[in-house]
Amino acid sequence: MAGKIDAVLFDFGGTLDFDGVDWFTRFYDYVVSHIGGNEPHKLNFFTAMKQAAMQMSDMNDIMSLNIDQTVIRWTETTHAIITAEKGHDSGNWDPMLVAADFMSDSHKIIERNHGVLSELAREYRLGCISNNWGNIAGWCSQVNYDSFFEVMVDSARENSIKPDPAIFQVALQKMGLNPARTVYVGDRYDADVIGSSSVGMIPLWLTGGTETIENDIVYMDYGLRQWQYIVKPAKIRSLTDVLQISELF
Fold first, then answer.
1. Which of 103, 128, 156 delimits the end of a domain?
2. Is 169:199 a contact under the CB 8 Å cutoff?
3. pLDDT at residue 226 above 50?
4. Is residue 44 part of a domain?
5. Are residues 197 and 146 in the same domain?
6. How many CB atoms lie within 10 A of CB 228?
7. Residue 128 shares a structural domain with residue 237
8. What's the CA gap between 227 and 220, in Å, rounded?
């Protein structure tokens, strides 16, 4: 397939701002690092995060928030939910400090990936497809990614959430792409690998070296404990590996 790829499209959270670790897992890990001992139950924490994300969808200003502001909002909302449901001791961590650690690490990766995208843009058409609150274009503009992307497709604005094939079709149609010649890079097996492959795109799984779908299952479907790899994608550990894309396919 080398030499036959026309475009590379990307997920954002966990992909462009970190090497293959989703936001749910990252938030949990930062909270654990701050409280030391008495770790919150992971499933309960993910449930609170999902509730917070849903609450944020109804906030009037959510589409205007940049990535830093969104991280703070999600951390604060999750903290409020946990504190209200489990009592003060369960919320014994500072959401602002957690958010600060999260974004400090994210911005280091974002800055590095600016060079990756710049190099890729010399040879391929680029775009972004994200499950978001309607502000993915604003995020890309904030971190100077917008000049690389022909489209920035947002689930909230398209009323379609990955892995729904419709959100991938939107990007393909807007860019006039052949899916069989289009690579999609994402960190989540369920949303990114399954979703992109369902429309004939070439999935590239950013695993960060963990190569696990455990976390996807936990917060996407709380009752699911068995999973089959119905798609076997190429895997990379870092977004910098995309620079060798011609060697991957």
1. 103
2. yes
3. no
4. yes
5. yes
6. 5
7. yes
8. 12
Residue-wise pLDDT tens digits, 113-122:
999 999 999 9
The answer to whether residue 1 is domain-embedded is: no
Cβ–Cβ < 8 Å for 95, 79: yes
3-class DSSP string for 30-83: HHHHHHCCCCCCHHHHHHHHHHHHHHHHCCCCHHHCCHHHHHHHHHHHHHHHHH
The residue with tokens 């550990």 is: 237
Residue 78 and residue 183 share a domain: no
CA distance 197 to 193: 6
- Backbone dihedral region of 37: left (phi > 0), alpha (psi from -120 to 50 degrees) or beta? left
Count of domains for the chain? 2
Q: Which residues, 6 or more positions from 162, have their beta carbon under 8 angstroms from its beta carbon?
A: 11, 129, 131, 155, 168, 191, 192, 195
The domain of 226 spans: 7-21+108-248
Model's pTM, two decimal places? Answer: 0.90
- What digits encode the pLDDT tens for the residues 55-71? 999 999 999 999 999 99
